[in-house]
Write a structure and sequence with these properties.
Blueprint: E1 2-6, E2 14-18, H1 23-28, E3 31-33, H2 42-51, E4 55-58, H3 66-80, E5 89-92, E6 94-96, E7 99-100, H4 112-117, H5 121-134, E8 139-140, H6 165-180, E9 185-191, H7 212-217, H8 221-225, E10 232-235, H9 262-272, E11 278-281, H10 287-290, H11 295-305, E12 309-312, H12 316-332, H13 334-352
Parallel strand pairs: 3-4, 3-12, 4-5, 5-8, 8-9, 9-10, 10-11, 11-12
Antiparallel strand pairs: 1-2, 6-7
Helix pairs in contact: 5-6, 11-12, 12-13
Length: about 375
């Protein structure tokens, strides 16, 4: 059951991608899910079998010890690697500083801001990449490409490399280079930029009141500069009236977050900027996207906006609710189904090209 598709890596070359037999399998490719617990168990096995997600994200709660975590990753990869040549996307947030999921299992890493000031961005990426690859993970949800502006200091703090767009872009390029040395993919976040926001999108939806021209010159500069280097981009749950003055269909007075905005995801990122890589929305369990809508409605809207992947980071009930909503919409609407199928094939192409992680000794001993 194989079919040839053109590779987006090199014109004129082809890669072999398994044809998925069912619509639920295609929908599953769009999901990048987290889970509770730190060991392989029946509920986790059933969730993976039911959804067949394209990716899994791990958090500190999933790490009991280095040896146990390495075994858990192996079991999850084995369950989702069908065929074996097509491993799932396996990710963790390893920025350094306050966002360091390996802080307890391994030595803590310095923050992006400290590394940038010391001229050690590539070294931070190199160490982060080695730690990620040590556990056979292949994606680090970093670097943060938000500008470190006064408005967001209380929320982002040292997660940002600096206030200058050029400085942030330089940091991002060096960090990505360091990750690549271990065969690890990076992810630029949080598009179009949270530097001018004063709210935490985990708790509420920030509204970025900034002129479109300034956003293009400042916040969007790192993404424009790194468009050819970023394997994937994460879209924020924040509203940008200057980029999309439209409102939610369900609530005409409510602005749409970027993650659900077709003008921003398909029009700006994929269209005007010509970004070719994977596009994923931030966690659909965050309140910044759930104001006025269910998680199922948010998942459907994110696919319609042009997101290729949907993050649902913790609760199995939420994973199932979002999955079932997207599946029902794909069964009902042929245009939406075509969007799902296009995104699923894009995810499969990315999985086909995943570099093999090179485990190092830090994961082998406890």
């Amino acid at each position: 059951h194989l079919k040839r598709y053109s590779s987006v890596v090199s014109p004129g070359t082809y890669i072999m991608i398994p044809t998925m037999a069912t619509l639920p399998e295609r929908v599953g490719q769009l999901f990048w899910i987290g889970f509770e617990g730190n060991a392989w168990n029946r509920p986790l096995e059933e969730l993976l079998a039911e959804v067949r997600p394209g990716g899994v994200i791990f958090f500190q709660r999933n790490i009991a010890s280095r040896q146990e975590f390495a075994e858990l990753v192996r079991q999850i990869a084995a369950a989702l690697s069908l065929p074996p040549s097509q491993p799932p996307l396996l990710a963790i947030d390893l920025e350094g500083g306050k966002v360091d999921r390996f802080r307890e299992a391994l030595a803590p890493l310095p923050s992006a801001r400290d590394a940038a000031r010391a001229g050690l961005a590539r070294e931070l990426g190199r160490v982060a990449g080695r730690e990620v690859a040590a556990f056979s993970l292949n994606v680090d949800f970093a670097p943060v490409l938000d500008l470190g502006l006064p408005e967001s200091e209380s929320v982002l703090g040292s997660q940002t490399a600096g206030a200058s767009a050029e400085q942030v872009a330089r940091f991002g390029e060096e960090f990505l280079t360091g990750l690549a040395e271990s065969g690890v993919l990076g992810c630029g976040k949080h598009f179009p930029g949270l530097g001018s926001g004063c709210l935490d999108s985990h708790l509420a939806m920030p509204q970025i009141e900034k002129d479109a021209a300034l956003l293009w010159e400042q916040d969007l500069f790192p993404y424009r500069a790194l468009a050819s280097r970023l394997p994937m981009v994460m879209v924020a749950h924040a509203a940008y009236p200057a980029l999309d003055p439209g409102s939610s269909d369900a609530n005409p007075t409510q602005l749409l977050p970027a993650s659900l905005s077709r003008n921003i995801v398909s029009g700006l990122l994929k269209g005007r900027m010509g970004y070719p890589g994977l596009v994923l929305c931030d966690d659909l369990e965050m309140q910044g996207v759930l104001e006025g809508r269910s998680i199922g409605e948010a998942g459907v809207a994110a696919v319609r906006s042009g997101c290729d992947l949907l993050l649902v980071c913790q609760h199995a009930a939420n994973v199932r609710a979002a999955f079932e909503a997207v599946l029902r919409e794909a069964e009902r609407d042929s245009d939406f189904r075509a969007m799902v199928e296009e995104a699923a094939q894009k995810v499969l192409r990315a999985r086909q090209r995943l570099p093999a992680a090179q485990p190092v000794s830090s994961a082998d001993s406890d």
